[in-house]
């Protein structure tokens, strides 16, 4: 049995399903409406919706004849959180690298201006 | 579950780049030398302890990440290509304390290892760093999970769906009465 995040990402791997989710982010709609932008048969669209439904990303309303599709918040929220973490890991690592490089450069410049910097041939002069 | 429409997983890569106001040598050294790595590498808020760092093809960089709440996790690089100062290629994965590969604790079906490539390009006085990450030796399911996570992120699902999900949670109860 798959864990929820794996199920969510697996469902997101397909471009049609991502497009369906992006459309549903604008609000609930019918299967017919969802199928319009895709050159795809209704059964093919229904198949994608089933995958999304099974992954817990969407639900189908029962209150109306046209059974509107809508996004489900829970699993999507966890997946979104994970994706944000992943991106942030790289972003913040490189932020720290940037800071570290600046500190080293500043320390080097300082030791140079304090004299005894004769051999710092690699230091770039900036100003 | 065998989705019939699984597309172009192999084409999915996570790519990230950043320009540093530093020489290429400095960026290269910061990325490849343990005395520098420990100052910046690792997840936000963590510090790292380096158990092993062998900068050679097949060599391992094995480190422990210590989190503020007391938790610790191990991870490793296996270096594949070292072309100073412009290209570093390694296999990236979580590990146990002995350096054995372990699964991603949050997403168990995430590829065990990703092949990461860092390239450094000189741009005047600055250095452009680009990281590319692709699944390595992944099963179909692992490649699909990677693809879903990365493509979802690329579409901005990460940031925008978080906002949306909060909103949906908030409005759920009202919505049911409509």
Task: Provide keyphrases for this structure.
heterodimer, A: 127 residues, mainly alpha, Arc Repressor Mutant, subunit A, two-stranded antiparallel sheet, 2 strands, disordered C terminus, B: 178 residues, alpha+beta, Alpha-D-Glucose-1,6-Bisphosphate, Chain A, domain 4, eight-stranded antiparallel sheet, 4 helices, globular, disordered N terminus
Tell me what you see in this structure.
The complex is a heterodimer of chains A (127) and B (178). Chain A is mainly α and 127 residues long. Chain A has a single domain (1-104), classed as Arc Repressor Mutant, subunit A. In chain A, 61% of the residues lie in helices and 5% in strands. Chain A contains 5 helices and 2 strands; from the N terminus they run H-H-H-H-E-E-H. Chain A has a two-stranded antiparallel ribbon with strand order 1-2. In chain A, a hairpin with an 8-residue loop joins strand 1 and strand 2. In chain A, helix 1 crosses helix 5 (73-113). Chain A starts with a helix and ends in a 14-residue tail after the last helix. By secondary structure, chain B is an alpha+beta fold. Chain B has a domain at 13-136: START domain (Alpha-D-Glucose-1,6-Bisphosphate, Chain A, domain 4, 2-Layer Sandwich). Chain B has 4 helices and 8 strands. In chain B, strands 1, 2, 3, 4, 5, 6, 7 and 8 form an 8-stranded antiparallel sheet that branches. The model of chain B is unreliable at 1-10 and 173-178 (pLDDT under 50).
